[in-house]
User: Which sequence fits this backbone?
């Protein structure tokens, strides 16, 4: 029997690639996405479509309102930075960082995994292109994995040994895109923009849009959503 895995699926380019990697590795994925009050809620539609098309075992959408805390351009009335150079993007932790977001998301993934009898959690964090987020670093993932095996019934009883998989963590955006295309990912179903218009179309100038554009250019292929 195939092993179950929980895959954090945002609807973005990276998470779609991670889902494809989990499927290729023989897992039956349970995909989780989060409606957390983000301004780019169009990604939720993309996550549903990706999960369905790629053949996930089950898709769960969790609603939590991080707007109650704010502190980020994605969850508060703060301007999303536009037209920045790579140096400006990495000079400091960006205002698009959502406080404790990956910790919150991974905690939900851990709960889903324990209930489903899964030991494996996949997340598309990356420490190469866009290294400004503190909760995308290898040392953070290692620490969370250690905590997961200390803080769960399954972990303490020795019934499960939880593993956080980060297959993209040392890949450039171009390498991620090439890997996804190799695995048949339909990137026309993905969304990356932090500040889309009312129809969900990307702005083309936020950090995420610019990094996506750079990735496709370096991969030598056209972005299907442009």
Assistant:
């Amino acid at each position: 029997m195939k092993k179950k895995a929980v895959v954090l699926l945002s609807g973005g380019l990276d998470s779609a690639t991670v889902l494809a990697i989990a499927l290729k590795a023989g897992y039956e994925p349970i995909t989780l996405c989060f409606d957390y009050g983000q301004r780019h809620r169009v990604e939720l539609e993309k996550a549903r479509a990706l999960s369905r098309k790629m053949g996930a075992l089950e898709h769960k959408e969790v609603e939590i309102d991080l707007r109650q805390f704010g502190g980020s351009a994605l969850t508060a009335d703060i301007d999303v930075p536009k037209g920045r150079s790579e140096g400006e993007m990495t000079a400091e932790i960006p205002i698009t960082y959502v406080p404790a977001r990956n910790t919150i998301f991974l905690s939900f993934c851990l709960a889903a995994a324990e209930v489903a009898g899964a030991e494996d959690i996949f997340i598309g964090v990356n420490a190469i292109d866009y290294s400004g987020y503190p909760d995308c670093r290898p040392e953070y993932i290692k620490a969370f994995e250690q905590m997961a095996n200390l803080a769960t019934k399954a972990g303490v009883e020795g019934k499960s040994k939880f593993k956080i998989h980060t297959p993209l963590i040392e890949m450039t955006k171009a390498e991620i895109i090439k890997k996804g295309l190799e695995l048949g990912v339909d990137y026309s179903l993905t969304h990356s923009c932090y500040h889309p218009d009312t129809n969900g179309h990307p702005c083309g100038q936020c950090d995420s849009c610019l990094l996506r554009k750079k990735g496709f250019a370096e991969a030598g292929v056209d972005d299907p959503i442009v």
In short: The domain at 4-219 is CATH 3.40.50.620 (Rossmann fold). Residues 88 and 94 are 9 Å apart (CA to CA). Strands lie at 4-8, 28-35, 58-63, 120-122, 163-165. The mean pLDDT is 95.
